[in-house]
Design goal:
By secondary structure, this protein is an alpha/beta fold. Helix content is 37%, strand content 13%.
C-alpha cells in the first residue's frame, strides 16, 4: 500500500510537458462552393477571412465588391470588408462556405447588355399623367362628426331591415349632409316612430326631437303598417326636427331656420335633376304630405327614451327583441359610433397621405 502511495506522489511531482505549439507553417485546406462547384485552397493556420477574399479574387477573378460568403451554421452572411477581418480560417474548417457571386462571364454578359440597351422612345400620343385631385379630408371629417351617430329601426315591427335602409338614405342624403355640416348638427340617434303610439283622433305626429338632438324619431311607416311614407315628405319632416336642435318653441326664429334648412337640402340634392321618382324604393304618390297632420309638439326635453319597450300583450319572443335602451345607453352607443367613424377617417386620411 505504501509503495502505491509513493508512486502516486512521484507521478504528481513529475513536471507536465506542454503540448507542442503549432507552427506558423502548418497549413489548412479550406473548401468553398461556388455555383455548386467546390474549390479547395491551401492557407496557413494564421490566415484570415480577408486572405480568403484575396484568394478568390486571384484565382476566380471575382472582385471583392461582388463577394458574399454564406457560412453555416451560425455565422451567416459575410462580405468584404467584413465586420471582423481577423477571423481565422481555421475556425471555419467544420463549416459549410458558399460563395454567392456572379462568375466573370456573367459579369461580362451583363455589362454588354447594359451598354447596348437604349431607352425606349416615349409614345407622343400618350399624355403625361396628372395627379388626381386629392380628397377634401376636412369635409370627410366634418361628415363623420356632423351626422346621425346611430341608426335604430324598431325590431318588433315588420321588415326592420327596410326601415334601416330608409334611415341610411336619410343619413346619406347629400342635401341633409350639407345642411348638417353647415349648422354643425350632430344627432345621437335617428330612429323610426311606431305610428300606433303617436296617433289620436285629432292628429298624427310625424316626428319628435328629444333633448335637442339626442334622439330624433320619424314616422316612416303608413298607419296600416303595409308600406312606407314618401321619402320627400319624411325628409321635410326631418328638416323640421333638425331645427329643434336650436329652437324648442315654434316661434318665428324656428320657422325661419326650418325654411333655411329646407332650401339648403333642396339646393344640395344632386338627385333632383332628372331623377325618376317612380323608381324610388320609398316613393309613395298617395302620401300628400303634412296637411291635416301634426308635425310635432315642439322640442321635447327630459325623461327617458326607451326603444321598443314591450307591454304585457306581446309574446315572449317579441319582448326579448324589445329590451329597452335608456337615454344614457343610447347616448353612450352614439358616442362610440362617432369615435369609431372619426378614427376610421383619420386612419384613411393618414394612409392616403403616406
Amino acid at each position: 500500500m505504501a509503495d502505491a502511495q509513493d508512486f502516486s506522489l512521484a507521478e504528481a511531482a513529475r513536471p507536465t510537458t506542454p503540448p507542442p505549439a503549432s507552427s506558423d507553417n502548418d497549413s489548412v485546406n479550406l473548401t468553398i462552393l461556388h455555383h455548386s462547384t467546390p474549390h479547395t485552397f491551401p492557407f496557413s493556420s494564421q490566415s484570415t477571412i480577408m486572405d480568403l477574399a484575396d484568394t478568390i479574387f486571384t484565382h476566380l477573378s471575382i472582385p471583392l465588391s461582388n463577394q458574399k460568403f454564406m457560412i453555416t451554421p451560425k455565422l451567416g452572411l459575410l462580405k468584404p470588408p467584413f465586420s471582423d477581418p481577423n477571423l481565422h480560417l481555421r475556425t471555419l474548417l467544420n463549416k459549410k462556405i458558399v460563395l454567392l457571386a456572379p462568375t466573370p462571364s456573367e459579369l461580362s454578359s451583363l455589362s454588354r447588355s447594359s451598354s447596348t440597351k437604349r431607352p425606349a422612345s416615349r409614345d407622343p400620343t400618350i399624355k403625361t399623367a396628372t395627379p388626381s385631385r386629392s380628397r377634401d379630408w376636412r369635409k370627410v371629417q366634418d361628415e363623420a362628426t356632423y351626422t346621425f351617430q346611430t341608426l335604430i329601426p324598431l325590431p318588433y315591427l315588420p321588415n326592420p331591415s327596410r326601415s334601416l335602409r330608409f334611415l341610411e338614405r336619410l343619413r346619406d342624403d347629400a342635401g341633409i349632409k350639407a345642411s348638417m355640416r353647415k349648422h354643425k348638427f350632430s344627432v345621437g340617434v335617428l330612429t323610426e316612430m311606431n305610428p300606433a303610439d303617436h296617433t289620436t283622433h285629432e292628429s298624427r305626429t310625424l316626428g319628435l326631437n328629444r333633448n335637442r338632438g339626442e334622439v330624433i324619431e320619424l314616422r316612416l311607416r303608413t298607419d296600416a303598417y303595409d308600406g312606407y311614407r314618401d321619402y320627400k315628405v319624411i325628409r321635410k319632416t326631418l328638416c323640421h326636427e333638425l331645427a329643434h336642435n336650436v329652437f324648442g318653441e315654434h316661434d318665428r326664429n324656428f320657422w325661419d331656420l326650418t325654411k333655411d334648412i329646407e332650401k339648403e337640402v333642396e339646393a344640395n340634392d344632386w338627385r333632383s335633376g332628372g331623377h325618376a321618382l317612380s323608381s324610388e324604393e320609398f316613393y309613395n304618390p298617395n302620401d300628400s304630405g303634412i296637411d291635416g297632420e301634426h308635425m310635432d309638439g315642439g322640442g321635447w326635453t327630459g325623461g327617458e327614451f326607451v326603444l321598443g319597450r314591450a307591454d304585457a300583450g306581446r309574446s315572449g319572443a317579441q319582448a326579448a327583441n324589445m329590451q329597452g335602451l335608456s337615454r344614457r345607453e343610447l347616448m353612450a352607443k352614439a358616442a362610440e359610433e362617432r369615435i369609431k367613424r372619426q378614427n376610421d377617417v383619420e386612419r384613411e386620411s393618414g394612409g392616403e397621405a403616406a
